[in-house]
Design goal:
heterodimer; A: 679 residues; B: 325 residues; mainly alpha; MetI-like fold; 73% helix; 0% strand; flat
């Protein structure tokens, strides 16, 4: 049987493949297939649902009081001082073959140019200690884990461990720190297969973090192995050569050209899901139910920096899947009469499959709530913000600048996140009204009326008579940005407001945001996990960017919102939680600290031989479910790429036609001069 | 000659110090270590402590130019300027933001860059000189007029058009070579064929016009008339005498770029997925990895100086009247 090789690409070299440090989607493409945290997202079920991966079952959560005594499940939030997560692991899970698990001949080390040069890679069984070791690595000062700051708020003793490690590094900066020797109060080993994590207070969202590579196991031997200076000099580091228990292992790691994942021969028993959404059966997504996974033998990622060559190679069948850039959008997709995206006849003829999904992200325009003109809680500023919210027409924006690939946002929560409400109940009444079964943007006249109420009739300050000028701080340096900025300016002009674009580089923009001197800005957020808390905390007062360097870029502060947010974040998904979120939405939509912008829509194209694809925006380890038909692919590649030689012959003849007269001309000229000499 | 070379090398030192100062100013003063830390640590959950920690780990927490806390010479040497500059002059480029050794990456990427740049340069030079000589040979005929029009058309088209058009026609429509990508060893041939061909064709317009001007200027000189008077065939006059006498301006343009071939081509490498130094620089600029950009700027300056020195030396080879002293 022909081996299953998936061909994919990467556009920029990943910066970090260390699970304690990596935090971007292009890096998760690799390490998501290699490292296995305790939990994962179910591949097919929606809304997104967690299930065990490294763990044998979902963690047992116990709430504790100040003395560490257990509390009942329904204890109030005030009573809960700690939460204890007990995680029991699968038995008999083995690491991928790796030289770190075999004795290393230090004499031969200088001759090793790459990992494959090491003889006889070994393996060993996964233990709870490996998970504990990784949690300690989050506090390592040299690793710069991006979630260290956040986790110190939850994991007991993490900050203390960082201080100890800092001291230890001062004494011997170059020496490897064996983290097994440094205790971490909040993590406890129960036995070989079980460990506990103690976190401060109640934080139900912690389970989602347990599905991210930050909490994947790390054997101490691996860290020690890579600390050898001889390996570091050759760029052989843990940050570049991951070691895990997952379905694949990285066997070729040349970020300058190609990266290859191959099937891990030690991978534990794992099976394709037996159940999914109602439509999955009809779409053939359950045909492989119960089959052992992974199906793929090898995944080749080639460096492909530009979208045009990538797209052409995809059409030739040399890549198995592709996104759709704006350059090729019209070639690939057309909109039906009802606005539905569908493939063009050319793509359909090639047997392509189009899959779309609304991403769990938001791009918004924020008002700096600390600004004296647009910010604050005064009626005047609120109405000004509401008027602007109406006139900036995001339906038009999505149509012009995103090829229709987006959904205008009614609030911060995208579809698929608990708390999002579709239909009339979910619309933003400040900006829309519900007419004929759909939301319709309020009129410019209504915006102008709000502006009059705000004290700016015809865009002028009623008291001073001066035109109101607003400032838009952006980092717009791309070729398309001028048109975009002009568009924004025109939106404001609809109600006679002058918008001045203040274009700066990224770092100056960050400074402005930190010191609160920006007035109106663009920002975005991509969810870490599918919980409303992960969006609404962006508006929580204590998270203000200006004073606390938090994620609340608008510096929004509303005591009632903060109170409801604190209540909501600790609740389980329930009608009561939905009710609280509804109240939160009403406050936000009325205060309008953001123009809610839009949620981008992802478009993916797949060749007919690529099976079991379903967009899962939360899971990082989806390649183990993918299946291919390599015979079909080879057949189509041959059919589509038959060399066309006649232009070469034509070109040759043309060259002859040019060269022959030239050659004859030379000969004639030479003879002419000879004749002159004879005379 | 040895004295001349030594003197030129000594002259190069202040130039390189200047380059180093400008790049240091751009990458450490205009763009502070705090800015770099924020770029590298990402958008999410970046705390002031994380920024301080990042700077401390890289030694970027030291003063830029003067260290009041240090004593004696340490006030000047325990600074970012001193440590970063001395490292550059030792060709110790340090590590990139992703922790990879920059020197190692440069050595690895030099090969693919040369695989494109050297054949493009040699074939381009040969094609340009040949076509220019032919145009001079056929001067004042319809062939020269057509050649001039063609070269103007060729040089008026954007380089990017040649790349995208070439990929579309040769790779996508005719299926003759891969559209992009790279393999090492002999497999590299089918991947470099198209970028080299496009590199040569896109340079023909301006190249031929430049060399034609040089040759036309030579054609008016006395030795050409003498050669003709001796009865030499026009082809021999052109390809032997005129070409040899035009070597100085040709060398001026050609030898100076020789060392820079190592630096690769920014756009060609990006579009063809060639893992060379050109795409390395572009990637570093996009990722704001200033350690790489600084290293490449410094390396570019060194190679340019070497190129100028080689040009001067090559004059003595082609023109016995030139003596370096």
């Amino acid at each position: 049987m022909e081996s299953q090789v998936l061909y994919s690409s990467f556009s920029g070299r990943p910066k970090h493949l260390d699970p304690a440090r990596s935090y971007s989607s292009n890096e998760y493409t690799f390490i998501g297939q290699i490292y296995e945290p305790p939990l994962q997202y179910h591949y097919l079920k929606r809304p997104y649902q967690l299930e065990p991966l490294g763990a044998v079952e979902m963690p047992k959560v116990t709430y504790l009081d100040q003395q560490g005594d257990p509390l009942p499940k329904d204890a109030s939030i005030e009573q809960i001082v700690y939460s204890l997560y007990e995680i029991t692991l699968r038995e008999g899970v083995q690491y991928q073959p790796h030289p770190a698990f075999s004795p290393v001949d230090e004499v031969l080390l200088d001759r090793m140019e790459q990992l494959s040069d090491f003889p006889q890679p070994g393996s060993r069984t996964l233990t709870a200690d490996d998970y504990i070791y990784q949690i300690k690595r989050l506090a390592h000062p040299a690793i710069h884990s991006p979630i260290f700051g956040l986790m110190t708020e939850y994991i007991v003793g993490l900050q203390g461990l960082r201080d100890q490690l800092k001291e230890a590094r001062k004494e011997s900066p170059e020496q490897w720190l064996d983290l097994r020797k440094f205790p971490l109060e909040g993590v406890e080993r129960v036995d070989e297969q079980t460990y506990r994590i103690k976190i401060k207070g109640k934080y139900p969202q912690f389970l989602y973090w347990l599905a991210m590579p930050f909490f994947a196991p790390m054997p101490w031997e691996v860290e020690q192995f890579y600390e050898r200076p001889q390996l570091k000099q050759k760029n052989i580091t843990l940050d570049w050569y991951p070691v895990g228990t997952g379905p694949f292992m990285l066997t070729v790691n040349n970020p300058n050209r190609k990266m290859v994942l191959e099937r891990n021969p030690n991978y534990h028993a794992d099976f394709y899901p037996n159940e999914g959404e109602a439509t999955d059966q009809a779409q053939g997504l359950l045909e492989d139910a119960g089959q052992p996974i992974p199906f793929l033998d090898r995944i080749e990622f080639s460096l492909e920096k530009e979208t045009i060559p990538y797209w052409n190679k995809f059409l030739q069948g040399y890549y198995d899947a592709s996104g759709i850039s704006s350059d090729s959008f019209d070639q690939a997709v057309q909109l039906s009469g009802s606005g539905e995206a569908q493939l063009t006849p050319e793509m359909e003829q090639q047997g392509m499959r189009l899959q779309t999904s609304v991403s769990t992200s938001i791009y918004y325009m924020g008002f700096n709530m600390a600004d004296p003109v647009v910010g604050g809680t005064s009626e005047r500023a609120r109405k000004l913000r509401q008027a602007i919210s109406i006139v900036v027409d995001y339906e038009e924006y999505i149509s012009i600048f995103a090829n229709g690939r987006g959904i205008p946002a009614q609030g911060p929560l995208p579809a698929g996140i608990f708390g999002h409400q579709a239909g009339e109940a979910g619309i933003n009444p400040t900006v829309y009204r519900w007419q004929q079964g759909k939301p319709v943007r309020r009129s410019i006249d209504e915006a102008k009326a709000l502006l009059v109420d705000a004290g700016y009739p015809n865009g002028r300050d009623a008291e001073s008579g001066k035109p109101l000028t607003l400032y838009f701080d952006v980092t717009a340096s791309g070729p398309d940005d001028k048109a975009r900025m002009d568009w924004y300016r025109k939106q404001f002009e609809k109600i006679d407001l002058q918008l001045v674009i203040r274009n700066t580089d990224y770092n100056r923009f960050q400074d402005k945001m930190l010191n609160g001197s920006a007035q109106i800005f663009l920002w975005g957020w991509n969810a870490d996990y599918p919980d409303p808390e992960n969006f609404l905390f962006l508006l929580y007062g204590p998270n203000a960017k200006m004073e606390k360097n938090g994620e609340n870029a608008a510096n929004y502060s509303n005591p009632e919102f903060d109170r409801l947010f604190e209540q909501m974040k600790n609740m389980e998904n329930s009608p009561e939680r939905q009710q609280v979120i509804h109240q939160i939405m009403a406050i936000l939509q009325d205060d309008a600290p953001w123009l809610w912008g839009f949620h981008p829509k992802n478009f993916g194209l797949y060749h007919r031989w690529y099976r079991n694809t379903k967009p899962n925006l939360m899971a990082n380890n989806t390649l183990k479910y993918a299946r291919l038909d390599p015979v079909e692919r080879n057949k189509m590649r041959k059919e589509w790429n038959d060399p066309v030689l006649w232009p070469l012959w034509g070109g040759g003849l043309l060259m002859m036609a040019l060269v022959v007269p030239a050659w004859l001309g030379i000969r004639r000229k030479e003879r002419q001069s000879l004749r002159v000499e004879v005379k | 000659m040895l004295n001349y070379i030594l003197r030129r090398i000594l002259y190069a030192i202040p130039i390189l110090v200047g380059v180093n100062l400008i790049t240091f100013f751009l990458f450490f003063v205009v763009n502070t270590p705090d800015d770099m830390a924020r770029m590298q640590l990402g958008m999410k959950h970046v705390t002031p402590e994380a920024i301080d920690n990042w700077k401390q780990e890289r030694g970027y927490d030291r003063p830029l130019f003067w260290n009041d806390a240090a004593a004696g010479a340490g006030q000047a040497t325990e600074t970012l300027l001193y440590s970063e500059s001395t490292k550059l002059f030792r060709f110790d480029f340090g590590v990139a933001d992703d922790g990879r050794d920059i020197g190692g990456d440069i050595r690895e990427r030099m090969g693919p860059s040369l695989a494109i740049a050297v054949p493009t340069f040699i074939l381009g030079l040969m094609a340009n000189i040949t076509f220019a000589l032919l145009m001079v040979f056929f001067r004042a005929t319809y062939l020269e007029l057509s050649g001039v029009v063609l070269t103007v058309v060729l040089m008026s088209i954007s380089g990017l058009f040649y790349i995208i058009g070439g990929q579309f026609v040769v790779g996508k429509l005719m299926h003759l070579v891969p559209i992009s990508g790279y393999e090492s060893g002999l497999d590299a041939f089918r991947f470099v064929l198209l970028p080299v061909a496009i590199g040569v064709i896109s340079g023909i317009g301006s190249g031929v016009r430049w060399y034609r001007t040089i040759f036309l200027e030579e054609m008016g000189k006395d030795y050409v008339r003498t050669a003709r008077a001796k009865g030499l065939p026009e082809g021999r006059v052109l390809f032997h005498h005129v070409l040899r006498n035009a070597m100085i301006p040709i060398l001026t343009g050609a030898v100076v770029v020789l060392p820079l071939l190592f630096m690769g081509s920014l756009i060609t490498e990006s579009f063809f997925g060639i893992p060379g130094l050109g795409s390395y620089t572009i990637e570093a600029i996009n990722a704001q990895d200033f350690a790489i950009v600084r290293a490449m700027v410094f390396l570019g300056a060194v190679l340019y100086i070497i190129g100028l020195l080689l040009t001067d030396l090559s004059y003595t080879l082609v023109d016995p009247r030139v003596r370096l002293s």
